[in-house]
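#structure-requests
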Amino acid sequence: MAEVEIGLGKSGRRAYRLDEVAVIPSRRTRDLADVDISWQIDAYRFDIPVLAASTDSVTSPATAVSMGELGGVGVLDLEGVWTRCEDPAADLAELSAAPLDAATARLRELYARPVQPELVAARIAEIAEAGVRTAGRVRPQRAERLAPHAIAADINLLVISGTIVSAEHVSSAGDPLNLKTFIRRMQTPVIVGGCVSYQAALHLMRTGAAGVLVGAGSGHAGTTRRVLGLDAPQATAIADARAARMRHLDETGVYCHVIADGTMSTGGDIAKAIVCGADAAMVGLPLASASDSPCPGRHWDLSSGHPTLPRGRILDVEPRGTLAEILRGPALGPDGATNLMGGLRTSMAKCGYTDVKDFQRAAVAIVSP
């Protein structure tokens, strides 16, 4: 891709956000009933290609069960309030009702409490008892300590994530987590991220990960670009990860899933992420706007409660409908905020594709946002 000169001796690529691209319909259309939006990673098949984001404002044990019943999977934050508090319902209700400044201070207090490893296993078991697939997220710094408790509870998918996660972390303070060694001794499929470049995605794929998350805290509540100056427009970042997946497949014969993480609000956004190369989407704000979300009316990023350098904020969120209505419909208005899967299915039908992998071959055009 051609680079643009920023100044003498410094140039940069032109990159694109999802709202700067559009999917181009082909010569063929399909009947909606013939469109299959299911997704399979490792041995696990899901009816919809959606992971509920691993933040406490989106995923609780109850909403993880609901996500499973609706065909997706909820990723529980194994370092969140559900593993720091025996019963955080009152704390979440307080966060929902408090003024934003007070809610932010309270959130940091809650996240300052120690994670209780026994609750990690208990929460995963609670979700599994409902008969749905289980998924949980840990940071690389705590993976060695907390993952065994999740594995003991027979977790189905383990997510290792942070604002940016690399396969080559270097530290003078001690031996960091060796992702390749850690992942390859796991019997459980591991998803790892975030990343926003071809090289970073390729190196994460080479660790043996089943999937990589593409995004750098660039969701609706994230402030990473403002606080750290780091980001990459999502359409280009996904396309770069897609290219890394192709190279990794050529090298190893192993298909590593690309999961778009951040900035998606509608079924059309998810459709564009898939056409750019994603196999599935991790969705936050749209699901936090469910009336039955863990903290109705509020949403925050994973890093919002950081004690010294938060890269996210608490947002007021207007309730849009139930979780079922947001994902499966019926749509409650013309803005695309409800019936996300209906939007994705219709986009695929209008372009003539019957499954998600084929839909990745659709053409795109660059448009003005």
